[in-house]
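subagent[fold] <- orchestrator: predict structure for attached chain, return tokens only, no commentary.
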Amino acid sequence: SSGINAEYGDSKNKMASKMTSLRALKQINTGIQVCRRSFGHAKGPEGLKSMKRWKMAFLFAGVPSVGFLFYNAFALEDHHKPRDEFVPYPHLRIRTKAFPWGDGQKSLFHNSYYNALPEGYEEGSEELNHH
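subagent[fold] -> orchestrator:
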């Protein structure tokens, strides 16, 4: 009799597990359906009209914007600006702990021409400016 109850209990647990899995799958499916309704594309003539509108917006607004930004970045902008004169302000370039690489004074992306060390610019860094 206890064997029958054990089998019945096991099948009851398996059934409950399957029901929980089915319930979870139904909830996921409902969520997917809500997303499709909310964020899906329009069908029919409205969808074609919307597609053409976004295509025109990309061609007449997006492409010229990217072209202007490219021109501004590479043709108009001076890439080698003169560096500022070093002023030893006490609140700048504070080193409470050495960096874990090199001599401990230079940051990971250190530029000898533009980035000053706590005592000033490095010796010989003036030759790095290509003006």
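orchestrator: received. Logging for downstream: The radius of gyration is 33 Å. Helices lie at 2-39, 45-76.
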